[in-house]
Design goal:
The structure is a single chain. The protein has about 170 residues and is α+β, with helices and mostly antiparallel strands. The chain has a 5-stranded antiparallel sheet with strand order 1-2-3-5-4, covered by helices on one side.
């Protein structure tokens, strides 16, 4: 478990979904496939398969070079960037073409919001909080949190988390 490895993966003090699952699977009956299909129906951009494999390799290589064991990757979301769960290090990686130039903004915003006590996902504590560039991709590394189902979150708790997040964004 995470605690056995010397770091904590305790759930953040909120239950807002951080990333929507949009796995690259070919099972027409599963939820992830339906989410991906709706994205395509709405005309949302996704990382092309040829670029996705390079992006996954860039994330795994980046994590490995930083001392994080990354022998496998699960695609959690494929939109204009990939969101990956790297295993066995259990890290969330966001990967986008360097040309998108939003990765540093995401890091800066997350740090600012965390500093104000807002409920946001944490950057991965075992590496420097920065954008790593590899093979034409910008890679950022974050703490991975298990998703919660809507039934696990009381509406009042969800509303409170949103209120705190909006208060932090106004600061």
């Amino acid at each position: 478990m995470a605690a056995d490895r010397g770091f904590s993966r305790a759930a953040p003090p909120f239950a807002l979904p951080r990333f929507f699952i949009d796995a690259l699977v070919s099972c027409p009956g599963c939820t992830a496939w339906r989410v991906r299909q709706r994205s395509r129906e709405r005309g949302q951009a996704t990382v092309q398969a040829s670029e996705a494999s390079r992006a996954v390799a860039a994330a795994m290589s980046t994590a490995s070079s930083l001392g994080l064991a990354a022998g496998d990757a699960i695609v959690l979301q494929n939109s204009n960037k990939l969101t990956l769960r790297l295993l066995p290090c259990d890290v969330l990686a966001r990967v986008a073409p360097v040309a998108h130039q939003v990765a540093q903004f995401e890091i800066d915003l997350a740090q600012r919001l965390a500093g104000s006590g807002s409920p946001v996902a944490a950057l991965e504590p075992r590496v420097d909080p920065r954008v790593y560039e590899r093979d034409g991709f910008a890679v950022t590394l974050w703490t991975y949190y298990e998703s919660l189902s809507p039934r696990e979150v009381a509406p009042a708790d969800y509303a409170n988390a949103l209120e705190r997040l909006h208060a932090g964004m106004r600061r």
